[in-house]
Amino acid sequence: MLALLILVNELTPLDAPSWLTLGVPVFVIAVELLPGRSRRLPKAERAAGAGEPDAVETEPPVTGRWSALNSPADKVPSHGVRTYGQAYAIDIVAESGDPDRKRPAFGWWPPVRPNRDFPAFGAPVLAVADATVVRAVGSRRDHYSRNSWPALLPFFLEGFARDVAGPGRLFGNHLILDLGDGTYAAYAHLRKDSLAVRAGERVRAGQRLAEVGNTGNSTEPHLHFQLMDRPEPHTARGVPFRWRGVGVPANGETFTVAAAGERQGTP
Question: Which are the contacts of 198, defined by CB distance < 8 A and separation ≥ 6?
């Protein structure tokens, strides 16, 4: 990181405005300290994670039309790190068929948007299997979107602060389910006060658990989903998944999941 800061300093013009002189190094530090970068697994554990375990097939956690981001279909680890059980994690965003409610594109303006502008906000989140809820956090506030260039630096700084506080702050409102056989499912960035279940409760596959929100380290309303080998993200290793009828959608791939009633009678 020091070498990168020196390079940035050498390339910055002497007559550059103060906001650029100070802002670029701060940006570099923020990127270096992005969630997970400062808490990498020890070398031995990274080596142990080199072998790809078998994927666990589950039901999809949503219905409707969605697109994938940061998908393990394109690279592993999908989010650049294996910490917090994220090796095979995926982010998905809802895509509306309504031309008057399309998902806002990343750009320069406005710097932030209200969550209601995004089709994913408030979408139902479903149990991917029969399971037991082992953790349920739902009281943290939803913040405005950060899907713009002006909002990136504040987002990185917020991410660093959340990383220091631990995975609970990165995930925001979240659920962790015990699927059995040493597999746990984590759902992150859920909407405040939307949880319909609590720790210790048994749930059935397809049951409504919560709603998609914009809490924790999130640029816009979306669902972060991952499977892990234990319930505590601090020590968990990621487990590959496959969604029944969908597989593992690649980055930018749009997929549609029919509601349970619409799937009845299909092979």
Answer: 133, 136
Strand partners, 177: 133, 185
- Is the Cα dihedral 256, 252, 187, 100 positive or negative? negative
Count the neighbouring beta carbons within 10 Å of the beta carbon of residue 199: 12
Note the pLDDT tens digit of each residue in 6-53. 333 444 454 555 444 445 445 444 444 343 333 333 333 433 445 688
* β-bridge pairing 131-137 and 202-203: antiparallel
Tell me which amino acid residue 21 is: T
Using alpha carbons, select from 169, 180, 168, 176 the residue that is nearest to residue 198. Answer: 176
Residue 104: phi, psi to the nearest 5?
-60, 140
Show the beta-strand stretches assigned E in the chain: 56-58, 64-69, 90-94, 124-126, 131-137, 174-180, 183-188, 202-203, 208-211, 223-228, 238-239, 241-243, 254-257
**Cα–Cα dist 220/147, whole Å:** 6
Cα distance between residue 128 and residue 147, in whole Å: 28
Enumerate the β-bridge partners of residue 133: 177
CA-based torsion, 40, 134, 185, 254: positive or negative: negative
Give the pLDDT score at 103: 82
pLDDT over 70 at 234, yes or no: yes
